[in-house]
């Protein structure tokens, strides 16, 4: 089993910080007040979680596109089509009330994990990819429960 590259792991974990921050400021009014005062209201609670989650789903479409380039023929065509799904999902589905948008974002990250599995199974994603993405996705989903249940 190939280890997750250290730089990828560090960047992946660092990428969780806005989700964790959004959940923390959604749960802790004092922290939210501090965050709003020093960073502004766009960087606390569900707003930061939903905005950042939308960006990450779009970013991941680019990652999957890169995996599709390693395939050929019909597999590549399918890969390219599937790779744009997370960005389109974010664009069309992450809107409305914070709770509804969070539910749709939650579903988008579950769908993304299935796409990660697909590209990993095809052999276009690295051996360590699914372990890496499953851990990150688990944290994201837990954090998104705050605006969903809030």
Automatic annotation (TrEMBL):
<feature type="transmembrane region" description="Helical">
    <location>
        <begin position="101"/>
        <end position="120"/>
    </location>
</feature>
<feature type="transmembrane region" description="Helical">
    <location>
        <begin position="38"/>
        <end position="65"/>
    </location>
</feature>
<keyword id="KW-0812">Transmembrane</keyword>
<feature type="transmembrane region" description="Helical">
    <location>
        <begin position="132"/>
        <end position="149"/>
    </location>
</feature>
<dbReference type="InterPro" id="IPR021836">
    <property type="entry name" value="DUF3429"/>
</dbReference>
<keyword id="KW-0472">Membrane</keyword>
<keyword id="KW-1133">Transmembrane helix</keyword>
<dbReference type="Pfam" id="PF11911">
    <property type="entry name" value="DUF3429"/>
</dbReference>
<protein>
    <submittedName>
        <fullName>DUF3429 domain-containing protein</fullName>
    </submittedName>
</protein>
<feature type="transmembrane region" description="Helical">
    <location>
        <begin position="77"/>
        <end position="95"/>
    </location>
</feature>
């Amino acid at each position: 089993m190939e280890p997750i590259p250290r730089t990828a792991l560090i960047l992946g974990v660092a990428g969780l910080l806005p989700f964790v921050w959004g959940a923390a400021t959604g749960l802790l009014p004092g922290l939210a007040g501090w965050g709003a005062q020093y960073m502004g209201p766009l960087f606390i609670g569900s707003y930061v979680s939903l905005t950042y989650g939308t960006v990450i789903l779009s970013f991941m479409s680019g990652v999957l596109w890169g995996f599709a380039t390693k395939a050929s023929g019909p597999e590549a065509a399918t890969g390219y089509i599937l790779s744009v799904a997370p960005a389109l999902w974010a664009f069309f589905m992450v809107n409305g009330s914070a709770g509804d948008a969070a539910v749709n974002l939650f579903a988008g990250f579950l769908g993304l994990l299935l796409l990660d599995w697909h590209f990993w199974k095809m052999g276009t994603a690295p051996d360590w990819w699914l372990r890496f993405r499953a851990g990150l996705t688990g944290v994201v989903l837990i954090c998104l429960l705050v605006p969903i249940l809030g």
